[in-house]
Design brief:
Blueprint (H helix, E strand, L loop, with lengths): L6 E3 L5 E3 L7 E3 L14 H23 L6 E10 L7 E11 L5 H15 L1 H7 L3 E9 L2
Parallel strand pairs: 5-6
Antiparallel strand pairs: 1-2, 2-3, 4-5
Organism: Algibacter lectus
InterPro entries: KH_dom-like_a/b (IPR015946), OsmC/Ohr_fam (IPR003718), OsmC/Ohrsf (IPR036102)
Protein name: OsmC/Ohr family protein
Length: about 140
């Protein structure tokens, strides 16, 4: 299956990028690199893609397993190498689940299924990064 994304220069350091979903996003450099900070940074966007991919898996599994979760977020931290081309050599993902009646065992299984089986973006990151995954449970 092919996906087509068209990224169009809008002048200076700003681009508009299409998405197969029909939603567009803007990419821009920070002021320190000649941009105006009016869009996403490309490398950070990769981290959003990683968290979004795994998050969609986990949300789907929460629904299928009929789990009670009040809130759920993923914090992703990455270490950028110093030499060019700069890339993320270490990435840590922290899955946070909030609720009064969390089934920790099943939620952990949902996270594990995403990171080991379903998330294609995770598999792409494995090609160049050392990944660390942690799951945190918070009762409200």
């Amino acid at each position: 299956m092919k996906n087509l994304v068209t990224t169009t220069w809008l002048g200076e350091m700003r681009f508009e990028s299409t998405n197969p979903s029909g939603h567009n996003l803007f990419i821009d450099a920070g002021e320190e690199n000649g941009g105006k900070s009016e869009g996403y940074r490309p490398k950070a966007l990769m981290l959003s893609g990683l968290a979004g991919c795994s998050g969609l898996d986990v949300a789907s599994l929460i629904k299928k397993m009929k789990l009670e979760v009040n809130d759920f977020k993923i914090e992703t931290e990455a270490n950028l190498t110093e030499e060019h081309p700069k890339y993320y050599d270490k990435v840590a993902m922290h899955f946070h689940f909030y609720g009064n009646n969390l089934n920790e065992k099943k939620l952990q299984k949902a996270v594990d299924l995403s990171i080991e089986k379903y998330c294609g973006v995770m598999e792409m990151f494995r090609q160049f990064s050392e990944l660390t995954i942690e799951t945190h449970f918070h009762s409200k």
